Amino acid sequence: LLLLNADWQQVKEWIIERAGKEIKVDNVNGVLKSFLVEPFIPHPSHTEYYININSVRDGDYILFTHEGGIEVGDVDAKALKLLVPVDQDYPSSQEIKEKLLVNVPEAKKDALIHFISRLYAVFVDLHFTYLEINPLVVLDTVSDDETPVIYYLDLAAKLDQTAEFEAGPKWAIARASQNTGIFVGHETTTKTHADQGPPMEFPAPFGRELTKEEANIQELDAKTGASLKLTVLNKDGRIWTMVAGGGASVVYSDAIAALGFAHELANYGEYSGAPTETQTYEYAKTILDLMTRNPIPHPEGK
């Protein structure tokens, strides 16, 4: 599922051949709907770096190593680390330089300091919980007064879905065609509006489509600071749960499985964080509707 060093015509043909087709990945069948097209950047391996930002209980860790790419190896063992404690100021340029860029050529340090500072600011502002760039390419300069060019060739990131009620408008603005540089149809404006852009989608895992009910609960969850989760495991199952609390919901599901009824577990879900009466009603109504939908009652009951 990877095409390298192709022109635009080859890219289009490759995508058309696979779009909407069912494929098998690690014993899971699914349909390809999204494709990522990036410019091909030839570069020597010594210009590849690695950076990772992830949230932990005590704050955010920034990990950096001067050896990136496919041979990055054990990142936890080799990366330099900088912890930004909760409720503390962003790291200074000096901190970044002294704690993360020890093994970076002097000519590239200023560019990387600026990049890491801005990257962390975006990480915090948009409520990321994890962000990894590998490789982060910093090309060599020809002269001392030239600024190194930076490319991020592969990136993986996770957003905090529970922050959607707060950060959702920012996510939408970031995805608007005016701000990505990808214009659709007759769109040519570069103005930014507070209500522009498509909402962020949190898709189901590859090979699985969200049911209408799951999508409705996900939309309800996005509008509140509370937590409302629903996954339909077996629509014909006899055991339906409606548990308050994320930890309790896991304990209940584990107990059901341990007693030998995993095959009868119809759903996984939880509500917590003090949802309103209306939100709780809609959540309960959805589960009861699913539970009683089968017109033929199960002989052993629900």
UniProtKB/TrEMBL annotation:
One Pfam family it belongs to: Citrate_synth_N
Class of enzymatic activity (EC top level): transferase
Keyword annotations from UniProtKB, A to Z: ATP-binding, Cytoplasm, Lipid biosynthesis, Lipid metabolism, Nucleotide-binding, Transferase
EC number from the UniProt entry: 2.3.3.8
Domain ATP-citrate synthase citrate-binding: 208-302
Classification via InterPro entries: Citrate-bd (IPR032263), Citrate_synth_N (IPR056749), Succinyl-CoA_synth-like (IPR016102)
Origin superkingdom: Eukaryota
Residue span(s) of domain ATP-citrate synthase ATP-grasp: 1-171
GO CC terms: cytoplasm
Signal peptide: none
Localization (cell): Cytoplasm
Listed GO MF terms: ATP binding; ATP citrate synthase activity
Chief location: cytoplasm
SUPFAM superfamilies: Glutathione synthetase ATP-binding domain-like (SSF56059), Succinyl-CoA synthetase domains (SSF52210)
Protein name in the entry: ATP citrate synthase
